[in-house]
Amino acid sequence: MFCTKCGYKNTKDSLFCQECGARLPIKSNKNIIDALKEAPKSLYIIAGAIFVLMIIGAIGGRIIKKQTSPIAMINKYMEAYSEEKWDVVYSYLDITENQWVNKESFIKQKELDTEPLDKIVNYDIINKKTEETDFNAESGNRDDTGLIQVYEVAYVTQNSSMTQTMEIRLNTQKKKRFMFFNTYLVHPSAYMATDCTIYAPQDSKVFIDGIELTPSGDKTSTQDGDLAAYTVDYLFKGNYDITIEHPLGQQLTMEEVSFSNDEEVMVDHLLFNGTMREERFQDTQGYLQQLMKGAINGEEFMNLNLPVLNTVNAKDSCEEAYNKLREQLEINEHGVGYKSITIKGFTDTSTQDKFDSHQTYTSKIEFEFDYVRMVKTGWGSSRTKEERSEKTQKGTFTINYIFKDMEWQIESYHIDGLNE
Q: For the chain, how many structural domains are there in total?
C-alpha cells in the first residue's frame, strides 16, 4: 500500500506509513478487523492494566476521600481530646504560632486546666452547617478566606451523664491531598484569648512567662496619670505569670493571672527600689548645698545648672524660690546677710514608697547647720558685726521630682527653718 503523503510503499496490513507516520487509507471494515486480530498481545495487556488501575484509583479515591473528610477529622480530634493526648490535639489545630502559641504552651495550659473528672467518655456528631468566613490572626490561624465546616458535637463526661454540646469549626486548607482531596484542621478559637492588654507605668518592661512584650504605643488615662499599654494579639486561654520591671521600682511578679478574650490587667503603681531612694536622698543633699552656696555668693539661678523640668511653670517656680532665698541669705547693700552656712548632718524623712503613672517622687530631708552672718550692731545703727549661731539650727528641704526622659528632674522645691 502506497502512502498518499510521501509515496512510500508499505505492507498491505499497515495502518500508518512506516516512513512518515501518516495514517494510511483503510479500504474496508474487514481490513480493520484483520488488523486488530493481528495486533500484538501486549496491547491487550496494556488495556487490561489501565482498566485495573482505573478500578483501583476509584476505590482508593473513595477511601482517601473518606479518610480526609470533615467527619474523619472530627473523629480523630475528639478521640485525641477524649484521651487527653494534647500533643495530638495540637497537631489537628489550624495554628499560627507565636512566642506564647506553640505546642509546649498548649500542653502546659491544658494540663493545668483539665481535671480528671472533666474527661469526655462519649460523643456524637449531631449537626452540621457550612459557612463562608474570613480567617484572621485574631483567632490564631492564617490570614485567608475559605470555607468553614461547622459541626455540633454532643458529649458526656466522666463526672456527669448530662449531655453537653460543643461547636467544632473546621478550616478548609489550601493544601490538598493527592492534588484533589480537601483537607481540614480545627479552628482554634475555642482555645484562644485575644487582644489581651497589660497597663503599666511608662518605661516599664513587661513579661508574660518570661517573654518580653513590646509596648503597643497606646495609653490609658487614670486618676494617677497615663499608663503604657502592652498588648498581646492572641495566646492560649489559661494562667500566666506576669513580671514587670522598671528602672525605679522593685520587680513585681503576679503569678497565675488568668487570660481570656479582651483581658485587661492594670498595674498603676510600683514600689520604689532601695537604690532609687538612696540616690534621691544623696542628690537632694547636694542640691540644697548648691542652692545655699549660690544664694550666699549672689549667683544667678541659671548658672547653677540644676536639672529643672523644661516647662514654664517648673522654671518659674524654681527661679522664684531661689530669688527669695538670695534675698534671705545674700549680704545686701546694708552689709547684712549670711557669710556662710555649714551643714552638719542630714536625715531622710521621705515617706513615699511607691510611684504611680505620674512617676513623681517627693524627697524630704531634715538638716542641721551652723551659720556665720552679719547683723546690725544696734537699732538704727549703720554698723554691722559678725554673729555666729549659738546652737545648731534645724531646717527642712523638700524637692518634688519627676522622672522624665529617663532621668529625675526638679518640678519645685521649698526650704524651711532659716532664720531671717
A: 4
| Position 297, amino acid | N
Domain coverage including residue 182? 70-186
For 56-70, 194-208, 274-288, which range has the lowest pLDDT when averaged over its residues? 56-70
Report the length, in residues, of the chain. 420
Residues 6+ apart with CB under 8 A from 181: 61, 64, 65, 68
Packed helices 274-297 and 312-329: angle between N→C axes, nearest 10 degrees: 50
Cell of 411: 518640678
Sign of the dihedral through C-alpha 226, 232, 235, 240: negative
Number of Cβ atoms within 10 Å of the Cβ of 240: 25
Tell me the C-alpha distance between 34 and 327, whole Å. 133
Mean pLDDT of 256-274: 89
Pair (257, 283) in one structural domain: no
Q: Which residues contact 217 (CB under 8 A, 6 or more apart)?
A: 229
* Least confidently predicted of 61-70, 190-199, 285-294, 303-312: 61-70
- Can you give the pTM of this predicted structure? 0.67
For residue 332, tell me if it sits in a domain: yes
Local confidence band at 379 (pLDDT 50, 70, 90 cut-offs): confident
Predicted confidence at residue 234, as pLDDT, reads: 92
**Counting Cβ atoms within 10 Å, is residue 389 exposed (0-12), middle (13-18) or buried (19+)?**
middle
CA distance 273 to 383: 54
- Average pLDDT, whole number, for the chain? 84
Tell me the three cell numbers of residue 27. Answer: 479500504
Same-domain check for residues 145 and 250:
no
Q: How far apart are CA 236 and CA 288, in angstroms?
A: 54
Residue 48: enclosing H or E segment and its boundaries? helix 41-67
Residues 117, 63 contacting (CB under 8 angstroms): no
Q: Are residues 232 and 318 in the same domain?
A: no
Confidence class of residue 262 from pLDDT cuts 50, 70 and 90? confident
DSSP code of residue 391: S
| pLDDT > 50? residue 142 | no
User: Residue 272 gets which letter from DSSP?
Assistant: B
Distance CA 227, CA 210 (A): 21
CB within 8 A of 312, min separation 6: which ones? none
